[in-house]
Amino acid sequence: MKALVAALFLTYLLVGGAEAQRADICDVPGYLLFGESELGNVTKSVKEKRRLDIMIFGSASSTLGGPEGKAYPARLEATLKARLPDIEVHITIHAAPRQTVTDMWNELKKIIREQKPALIVWQTGTVDAMRGVEPDEFGSVLNKAVENIQANGTDVVLMNMQYSPRTESMIAVGPYAENMRWVSQQRGVPLFDRLGVMRHWSDTGVFDFYTPTKAFSVAQKVHECIGRALATQIIDAAQLGPMAKVAQ
Amino acid sequence: MNSVSQQLATAEPAAVAEVRPADMAESSAPRKVSPPSQRDYRLDLFRGVALWLIFLDHIPTNIVSWVTIRNYGFSDATEIFIFISGYTAAFVYGKAMTERGFLVSGVRILRRAWQIYVAHIFLFCIYMAEIAYVASSFENPLYAEEMGVLDFLKQPDITIVQALLLKFKPVNMDVLPLYIVLLLLFPPVLWLLLRRPMLALSASVALYAVSWEFEWNLEAYPSGTWYFNPFAWQLLFVFGAWCAMGGSERLSGVLRSRVTLVIAISYLVFAFLIAMTWHIPPLTPLVPEWLSALLYPIDKTNLDVLRFAHFLALAVVVVCYVPRDWPGLQWPIFRPAIWCGQHSLEIFCFGVFLAFAAVFIMGEISGAVAMQFFVSFAGVALMIAAGGLLSWYKTVEGRNPGSRTKTTDADMAGGEA
């Protein structure tokens, strides 16, 4: 049995490793990508209306202090505009610090009555994990919320927590990440596995998340990479590859 | 093959024979159940191993934790630990209750709960020291949000009181509070187990079911509920105690059957395959939707039925292949695990401390794979050293099992329930 596990694990590493052997440091190995999920409303909006409205709905980790335009939402917008030059791309940001998924959904309910973006990128989980909200409740609230948003004709991409080795022993993010994966499978929505992606960058030495620093430069590079990776995955999932320019 | 009843019974053949007449008379009238007379080293062995696995799993980024059982099925080392703790608690205090009465043994159980409470608060102090250090030494704009977890340091008045009330429980410090609650409620449970074991077990199952139905759990601070719901996890503890009180003999017919073994092994294989889909994402789509709707979420907080069943299946296989009198239990290679299992409270607490220390070292020096191996092996080695030292000390103090009368044998084990 152990040999089987070892063999499977090795295959998994090799497959993941082979995919990772591309030049860009921001690259994400295949097993961390969206997979089969599609973004039908994004495809439709881009193909029929030539425009793409995205709302980033997140907590404090969807923002970054320091100069404007360096957090991942702005990097996502810049990348999408560069890769889809004929499309009008608009990104709005709602970043509410210290909100659990229940608080967020109460607010989002009101917002989507007035606005109807093609896609909502919903970043959540960290606050719930810090507060110790029951993981099951977290999952079921999120599941119901995503179902509602989908019924509203809007696509959803879920984004989980950051990989944070220094606080790993204080914030048990695991159960919340599992619940987000479960919701993404239940509702057929893509999951941007920020936790897995950042851990991959840490393991492969792309970024050092251990060392203390007051400088914004590392954080900005991380957000740049997240924005670019997210843009690529949205383009792939919405099957916009043929009309998009190749990433620079 | 030996009778599985004897294998699971954890009682010596002589003790089984002692119980037999009572068994026969038991059919209608309430009976007095006697706990088995001698310690079963399998319990110590597996509890020791469980303690190592808990330690490894408590280090968040640790490649060595790939060996722990949670990666290959539904249940993990916590189930083993709680079941065996229930079993040994019944073994130790059941004997005290038959010999010294309800009150004496009840007080002894409460004294044990107090010891565990003190140990828990001690660990909490160490935890506070560690994170206070992290709070003052670590800074990175990327983690402005995550550092909010340290906000409670600004309100020590509330935090410390909530910790004393067992409501505020930092990550990985959930097992001891569960254990404390289980022990506090144990005296009446044990009283009932000694008279009407089936009734006690049924009550436990009923409580489990009701807590699922009405979503009972204890409240936690600052929000949410206990990570290990005592209303649900008591089932495993009481089931362990019930097995010690002759329940395993009752089950012997079922356990002896090949069919049970085949079912257990099939279930373990099934759980293994499902677990593989967690680790190898390309396999995930192979699980049909109706099956994942049925399986997920597998709830650890409320001891999901799938987890309980997985533990039972493991137990069935283990009692079948590792009989009570298995000569291997005397092999030197298993000594370290038995030492650790025999001093479970000390070694558990030490393990929690070592996990804190490992995280600290990895944060300060390096989190590289080589370091993960180093802290894992060093940690387990230190746990073994501590277990060995405690066993040696007990021996030189003349408190080893062979050197005292039967009454104090139970007393000896009282330190390890």
What does this structure look like?
The complex is a heterodimer of chains A (248) and B (417). Chain A is an alpha/beta fold and 248 residues long. Chain A has a single domain (28-240), classed as 3-Layer(aba) Sandwich (Rossmann fold). Helices cover 50% and strands 11% of the residues of chain A. Chain A has helices spanning 2-20, 40-49, 72-83, 101-114, 126-131, 135-151, 174-187, 194-203, 217-237; strands at residues 51-58, 88-95, 119-123, 155-159, 191-192. In chain A, strands 2-1-3-4-5 form a five-stranded parallel beta sheet, with helices on both faces. Chain A is globular and about 50 Å long. Chain B is mainly alpha-helical. Chain B has one domain (4-414). Chain B has helices at 4-9, 13-25, 41-57, 77-100, 102-137, 156-164, 175-184, 186-195, 197-214, 230-250, 252-256, 258-279, 289-295, 305-321, 335-342, 344-364, 369-396, 406-414. In chain B, helix 4 runs antiparallel to helix 18 (406-414). Chain B starts with a helix and ends with a helix. The relative contact order of chain B is 0.16. Classes of the chains: A alpha/beta (248), B mainly alpha (417). At the A-B interface, helix 1, helix 5, helix 6, helix 7 and helix 9 of A face helix 5, helix 12 and helix 16 of B.
Topology:
The complex is a heterodimer of chains A (248) and B (417).
Chain A: H1 2-20, H2 40-49, E1 51-58, H3 72-83, E2 88-95, H4 101-114, E3 119-123, H5 126-131, H6 135-151, E4 155-159, H7 174-187, E5 191-192, H8 194-203, H9 217-237
Parallel strand pairs in A: 1-2, 1-3, 3-4, 4-5
Chain B: H1 4-9, H2 13-25, H3 41-57, H4 77-100, H5 102-137, H6 156-164, H7 175-184, H8 186-195, H9 197-214, H10 230-250, H11 252-256, H12 258-279, H13 289-295, H14 305-321, H15 335-342, H16 344-364, H17 369-396, H18 406-414
Helix pairs in contact in B: 3-4, 3-15, 3-16, 4-5, 4-10, 4-18, 5-7, 5-8, 5-16, 7-10, 8-9, 8-10, 9-10, 12-14, 15-17, 16-17
